[in-house]
Amino acid sequence: MKAIAVEPGVADSVRVEDVETAPGPDDGLLVRTLAIGVCGTDAGIVAGSDGVAPPGEDRLIIGHESLGVVERAPDGSGFAPGDHVAGIVRRPDPVPCPCCARGEWDMCSNGRYRERGIKALHGFAATSFTVEPEFAVRVPPELGVTGVLVEPASIVAKAWRRIDDFVGRNCLEPSRVLVTGAGPIGLLAALLGAQRGFEVHVLDRVTSGPKPGLVEQLGARYHTTGVADACEGADITLECTGADQVTIDAIANSGRNGIVCLTGVSEGGYATEVDVGAINRSIVLDNDIVFGSVNANRSDYEAGIDALLRADETWRTGLITRSVPIDSATDAFTSQDGDVKTIVAFDELE
What we know:
Layout: E1 2-6, E2 15-18, E3 29-38, H1 40-46, E4 60-61, E5 65-72, E6 84-87, E7 90-91, H2 98-101, E8 114-116, E9 120-121, E10 128-131, E11 136-138, H3 150-169, E12 176-180, H4 184-195, E13 199-203, H5 211-217, E14 221-223, H6 227-231, E15 234-239, H7 244-252, E16 254-262, H8 276-285, E17 289-292, H9 298-310, H10 313-319, E18 320-325, E19 341-345
Parallel strand pairs: 8-9, 12-13, 12-15, 13-14, 15-16, 16-17, 18-19
Antiparallel strand pairs: 1-2, 1-4, 3-5, 3-10, 3-19, 5-6, 6-11, 7-8
Helix pairs in contact: 3-4, 3-9
């Protein structure tokens, strides 16, 4: 069978190669892959800046955003052939830490977790893969190919879960939301904000292509200026770019009692001049909350599925702007103008 693999730490080592067995546990669900999504994490792995191969191996099969159809399911697994599924990415650490012991592996505190297609476990980017039933989520077939968005939707669902928790614990009545970045994570973050009834503003640097229209379809406002001009004093900000200056501006321009969630991962090695004292003063005197959010738990996958089902079908489909066949999979990791979400298609939906 075919798989997309890299040699971690070696730039541009990605290639489509033949593998003998489906990646994953021997006794899990056998899943025929329909599509995998490509994101910034994959781009970093392909660039050689991220990724860890399984112990004793030189290459890593990538792909953590998955959609497939079950071909074989063990008795008592709760799944049946024909079910559409997505694989949960993270696995708890073997110790386990207090969070992993409670099943909250997305909050692993000792860093010994493993992740399919990212860290120490092969991913889902193969003709077929296997996955433990407890780490598979059923995807409603009516989502069609947009079921490949379940994993990124789970990321923003977790971010919003934590935001909702902060709001619920405090005397807050937020109304305005700023999302920085109109990539897949940013647009999905805007979707969940709109579904909560907030006034949503989205900031991105592009002025053409599908992004402005996708934002407008949500009833949100699209901006291409700066954070302060887009929505100064936002009650809730979701930073989805990882860009140094945008991150600083998002924190500095939040409103009183503001909540800032950082989901974008910044690259190191860049120096930026910052008035730390001014930012500290603003955060402290305004009772601001600034936190980071990464990965997701099973409940977040389920919440992400619910959000996608509630979204307009045309809008969901519009997020997927490029589909690359498996034989040309390496092309998926080179961005093109107008890209929002690129997927690699392994098979056609039935």
